Amino acid sequence: MFPVAAIAQRELQQTFCQNLVLFANLMHNKISSLWNARFLRVVFFILIFGTVSCGVLEERPPFMADISGIDVPDVEIKRYEEVLFRINPNKLYEEIQPYISTFGFFLGDAIHTQAGQQQLFDYISDPLIREIYMDTKEVWYSLDELEENLTEAFRFYRYHFPQNPLPRLYSYISGLDHHFPIKYYDGVMVIGLDLYLGAGYEKYMQAGIQLFQQFRMQPAFLESDIMRMMAENHLQQTEIVPQNLLDFMIYEGKVLYFLDSTLPLTHDSLKIGFTGTQLQWMQQNLGRVWTFFIQNELLFSNDRGVIRNFVGEAPFTTAFGNNSPPRTAAYIGWQIVRDFMQHNPSVTLSELLHIQDSQKILTRSRFRP
Question: Do 206 and 70 reside in the same domain of the chain?
Fold first, then answer.
């Protein structure tokens, strides 16, 4: 039992953090038309990281492994965009030569053909792409902090998966390909830095990207998104295709528990992509949401519309009103998996990802919201 003073301190800290994120949301909704987008992005950056600092717990989280004996190479993200936009487009083939071996993943054999060179010329000469690059360089002028944080995350990953290779990381300018901000294939992870420039970025508005989507396009979410891609890569190799709502809930719960295990000190709001007020709503209404699923017999529904309503990206969950967060079923799946791992401490993260029976995880979790 915590002393009363400790409880009061924790509640005060939680209230402060929630108000901090609420302030960020109010800024985004009320004054974006008054302040220029660049200043707004800076404010969002500060506020989000303020929220993260609130999420650092005093005690060690139960899912935080001891990595004191785990070493990995320092992460280095190779910046394809920095090379491309330093090249003189009129001397493209000549000046790209020193980089072909390093960035062969992007260039391929096409760079040796006239058509491939023309395509690359058109890309680096495009005024819009060049403008996005300059904006990206302003936000991501250095990747040192990101690389340092990922090195720590990879140490946790190596603890749980000692035999698995670590991905090779590259950054580039995607041209606002917001449906695929990070691509991961055959051990190579490619990060579209232009998709993490902050909510309110004018090019996002011009591209028709909705505000609730822009919230996830802040720099603070990049580490979680990278580790999420690694989690999904594991599950694609081990998991059968989810069929019903419970399957999707547990799938999402596994992904988020993977983030718990590799980013143990990262705030929950950054792992699942909620605002502070959305996270608070979910915590306060957990029992209500679970009861709704049970009473309406939704857990074993394979209706794709139903599944999309409770797991898919959206500004809110329609069944629970405009103040609710999206992905309410994903959050509950996360709590089920957390309870399962707490009550089954002998199960490793790797073994969790291989369990294909969602009902088994639910039953053995003893989940009681």
Answer: yes
